């Protein structure tokens, strides 16, 4: 069972940490709405 990602990418502008934070935050929010949950994913 995996709980993390392994991604190989080049980020010359340094935006990857902020993008990942935003992406995972809103993915979790969408999944919680889909499953009718309100706790942490």
Could you give a short account of the major beta sheet?
A: none
Mean pLDDT: 88
Fraction in helix: 40-55%
Structural class: mainly alpha
Oligomer: single chain
Shape: elongated
Order of helices and strands: H
Question: What separation lies between the terminal Cα atoms?
Answer: 16 Å
How many individual β-strands?
A: 0
Which stretches are poorly predicted, pLDDT < 50 over at least 5 residues?
none
Beta content comes to: under 5%
Rounded radius of gyration (Å): 13 Å
Number of helices: 1
Key traits:
1 helix, 41 residues, mainly alpha, elongated, single chain
How would you concisely characterize the structure shown here?
This protein has 41 residues and is mainly α.
Provide an overview of this structure.
The chain starts with 15 loop residues before the first helix and ends in a 6-residue tail after the last helix. By secondary structure, it is an all-alpha fold. It is elongated. The model has no long low-confidence stretch (mean pLDDT 88). The chain has one helix at 16-35. Helices cover 49% and strands 0% of the residues.
What does the secondary structure layout of this molecule look like, with pairings?
Layout: H1 16-35
